[in-house]
Amino acid sequence: MEDMKTFSTPLENNYKTYSMELAGRTLSVDIGRVGKQANGCAFMHYGDTTLLCTATASKQPREGVDFFPLSVEFEEKMYAVGKFPGGFNKREGKASEHAVLTSRVIDRPMRPLFPKDYRNDVTLNNMVMSVDPACDPEVVAMLGSSLATAISDIPFDGPCAATQIGMIDGEFVINPGYEQKAESTLALTVASTREKVIMIEAGAEEIPEAKMIEAIYLADETNKKVIAFFDQIVAECGKEKHSYESCAIPEELFAAIKEIVPPAEMEVAVFTDEKQVREANIAAVTEKLQEAFADNEEWLAILPEAVYQYQKKTVRKMILKDQKRPDGRAVRQIRPLAAEVDVIPHVHGSAMFTRGQTQICDVITLAPLSEAQKVEGLDPFITKKRYMHQYNFPSYSVGETKPSRGPGRREIGHGALAERALLPVLPTEEEFPYAIRAVSETFESNGSTSQASVCASSMALMAAGVPIKKPVAGISCGLVTGDTDDDYLVLTDIQGLEDFFGDMDFKVAGTHDGITAIQMDIKIHGLTRQIVEEAISRCKDAREYILTEVMEKAIAAPRESVNEYAPKIESMKIDPDKIGEVVGKQGKTINEIIARTGVKIDIDDDGTVSVCGTDRAKMDEAEKYIEIITMNFEEGQVLKGTVVSIKEFGAFVEFAPGKEGMVHISKIAKERINHVEDILTLGDVVKVVCLGKDRMGRLSFSIKDCPKDKAALNE
């Protein structure tokens, strides 16, 4: 037999590892160790948190698209925290809401740094393989996506970097871990390029504007250190960027369009506050150009994009040079506002907020805490959501038609933003023991529906009797920039056209006293500090106006109680050792209470019992049952019960489901009786007095010794 031979040679460890200290922990990156067939790959380690971050691009542009097809994925592997995935298959399924939101946070700073005329598909994949509770994988994913793309051959004007800031006891914490986040009153994420801030996402407990700006630029300072570290890696490991087929509109087509439709005519077409009128005007312009270019198939194919770009240039020029907005408003002017509550009957609470052609109706539903949403994820401190805010954006809201396929990433993101804005003002579970679901229905959309959702939800919560601490309002500011950093104009309350053609959508929500949420999206390579500060200041002024002049006139404070259609919830405390008695064997006792009263009962491990129902008398009955079941009977206590069993020696009286007492035959009547049935029958309701324990330690009760003038404990 031929001797066994080895035909392979050991692989050499020829990859490179780079590291730096970041907020007291080591950030290290392996380049060339794994994922070598991706255009770019960074094996990221922050503490013991480990992610595989890759960037890949198609070799050819996608046909028929007029946008950059970027996909960002954040994959939460449950093995990263030593858990089995939930569900029947025990396998990770579709992305969780948290994963979707993380993907959006990565997408927003990355997208502006790709060429505007690039149409190749690009996918940024971030796989969480290990989680160190002190090092949030979100931060690592944002850094890894940037680095993987920067070292790849994909055209990209990076790298960028991202930092999270928390605040505990008034002190900022850079890149807080899960435990610190649970205590923090600020959850801020900031992405930056070498020169400017490019993305802001924040949730806060009424942080003053000045403090928020301080936190933003602490993050920006940290980002610059990370970018310097990344620049070193790119210099040593980066690939040459590949060439690509540009999808830019030829300048000769623009020149021909302007000959047929002069700039003044295009200004007239777009200068209106009615979206439908503007769309009709643009349709007429497009038809006119199609007739003119009927013999040029190449130009006809790209004419819709050319008209879009012509609109964009026209609107930007009108705003920046002439300070004319398409609907004729002043730069700081908010569109007409309206607010009302109780617009939907028979629900637990509702409100509608209208700002120009943007209209949101929000509906509140209240339920017991047991209805809180269970959360399965990587954060050990977030296991349920008591407050859920969901946002819907049907096609009719923008005058279009398409089938509903459930919420997309945008809808999930808008709902989460409104949820984040309102969380700081919600009452505690002890103050208001309800799970709360808010659903924002978009009736009409022409700019910043997410902030209209904040306003509508705040009013709907108050209308539902949820004792929020303060009302919350939100508004968005836009931006148009010129050729220099000083050539710009910030716009208060942008409509859809100013969002599409502008450079920024800066959303800020809060109370009279501070910021509760921020989300900033931009289409350029960053904002100067001057622009950031001006936008935050503008949003504060607009927010104060909306709160004072509109929302508080519709409803000034939460109603004193929930309405007639909402469930009523009462909480009581019992000895945790008595929980078993209330539940009973296999749940028999608690199910009997529920069957008799029609209420819903939830019991926590600490002995907190929540009784939920719509009939106050039935709720009181259930509470009395629980009080009797958990009562330590003492001599002299008077109770009312039902005869449920008759024996030769006496009768058993039930005071509450699972709670009975025995009345000896000698204690039934003052005169001697031979048979219990001579006096009592099954179902009789009687009053008894507790005689204490007999010689065998059993509780005994008497009918004949019961004081006639004393009320029963369970009446």
TrEMBL record:
PROSITE patterns: KH_TYPE_1, S1. Its EC number is 2.7.7.8. It catalyses: RNA(n+1) + phosphate = RNA(n) + a ribonucleoside 5'-diphosphate. Gene3D superfamilies: GHMP Kinase, N-terminal domain, K Homology domain, type 1, Nucleic acid-binding proteins. GO terms for biological process: mRNA catabolic process; RNA processing. Residues 636-704 form the S1 motif domain. GO terms for molecular function: 3'-5'-RNA exonuclease activity; magnesium ion binding; polyribonucleotide nucleotidyltransferase activity; RNA binding. Pfam families: KH_1 (PF00013), PNPase (PF03726), RNase_PH (PF01138), RNase_PH_C (PF03725), S1 (PF00575). It is found in: Cytoplasm. Mg(2+) binds at residues 499, 505. One of its GO terms (cellular component) is cytosol. Its main location: cytoplasm. Keywords: Cytoplasm, Magnesium, Metal-binding, Nucleotidyltransferase, RNA-binding, Transferase. InterPro entries: ExoRNase_PH_dom1, ExoRNase_PH_dom2, ExoRNase_PH_dom2_sf, KH_dom, KH_dom_type_1, KH_dom_type_1_sf, NA-bd_OB-fold, PNPase. Its cofactor is Mg(2+). HAMAP family: PNPase. Belongs to the polyribonucleotide nucleotidyltransferase family. Involved in mRNA degradation. Catalyzes the phosphorolysis of single-stranded polyribonucleotides processively in the 3'- to 5'-direction. This is Polyribonucleotide nucleotidyltransferase. It comes from Eubacterium cellulosolvens (strain ATCC 43171 / JCM 9499 / 6). The gene is pnp.
